[in-house]
Request: fold
Amino acid sequence: MRRFSIVFAAFFLLLGTAGVNAETLKIGSLPAADSIILHVAADEGLFAEQGLDVEIIPFQSALELGAAMRAGELAGHFGDLLNVLMQNERGARQAVIAVTTRSSPVQRCFALAVSPEKAGELKSLMEMKGAQTAMSGATIIEYLLWRMLEQKKLPEDWLTMQEVRQIPVRLQMLLGGMTDSALLPEPLATMVESKGARSVWDDTGLNEPLAVIALSARYLRQDVAEPFRRALRKAARRIEAAPEQYRALMVEKGLLPKAAADYTMIRFDLFGAPDGMPPLPSREEMARVETWMLSRGLIKTAPAYADVVFP
Reply:
């Protein structure tokens, strides 16, 4: 009877694991350059090799993606730490399982670009007191603008912030001279430079986890998270081995504008980590983001580190 009970329990344990792995994991994604890692892992069967059925669901804004997470329509998403923390506080429990982009001295991720119209006049951040800057509040953009001013020891009112939620509108305003500057992610920063804009600051002097992949609480198990991470690592190696091939795929999927031909292809292995991926957010980095969000009223309490970063 004891032997039968052990076998019986093992059977149901395996059945439960198989049920999770057989389920289609819908992962929300945004049209960002580094989200290519998710598409490669899904399209080239790398998730399937790990026993996971993953479907990538595209979204055009973090607002829509967040709503889908809160409604329980997604198993996880590609986004940033701010989004993860805000969604957690609103009841969509989740945790970060991977970082896809981290600022590095050798890889620019964001840049403050001055419009072509003002490029000859505003040649440095120190010359931009009062300049208009198109941005999106309560996002990684606002956080990085704060980090930029903190790094340069400038007051928070150094720039005149213009709230422009949609990136395409921000881009048009910058190129059309309707704003003096805008903080843009790659590859858009490279694209506007090709059209006469001037970058006066970038994030290469920071060390920040900028884009992450998070799974909802239901899937925060090692038998789901680890296979997911293994597939991402394999995708990263493929992208780094054939950058031109995957640059073309990024254009095809709308992750890279054709005009950004000079974009330096993203790399994931710049940080010396054993798995060749950007490291997970540290406690110090989480604390910095949480302190800033608390000061802005974006969250009411700072969660425990273990509740938002899955080891």
